[in-house]
């Protein structure tokens, strides 16, 4: 659907490292296979994350957090291009009746660092509903220990 923009590649490489390092910090696992075996870093890691078969997305620290990253799998699932996704408040990826539950969940993630096995209903830009299963959601924390947002990854979903 969309392509990762070529502008801001440095920021994308930096964000990819933040995603992968934070995931490993909380879970002890690599976000994508082989990333910590010298295959990561720079555009190699950015490309691995962007082309990964699982959904990977994140939002920032705004009062109403806006999505700031979505890989190709996320773009396809939410039926958006890069520009649409990265200008969408994170809460709008869930249906209104699911948003209160989603907010409570993200409060738990903030308190504990990460949560595995999250399930919930989401909605694409065209109104297509899907159920996500076994998602891992984690806090993004940089090398200085500063909170930079939250991210999620999952492989399993089904349209409803």
UniProtKB/TrEMBL annotation:
<protein>
    <submittedName>
        <fullName>MEKHLA domain-containing protein</fullName>
    </submittedName>
</protein>
<feature type="domain" description="MEKHLA">
    <location>
        <begin position="14"/>
        <end position="158"/>
    </location>
</feature>
<dbReference type="Pfam" id="PF08670">
    <property type="entry name" value="MEKHLA"/>
</dbReference>
<dbReference type="InterPro" id="IPR013978">
    <property type="entry name" value="MEKHLA"/>
</dbReference>
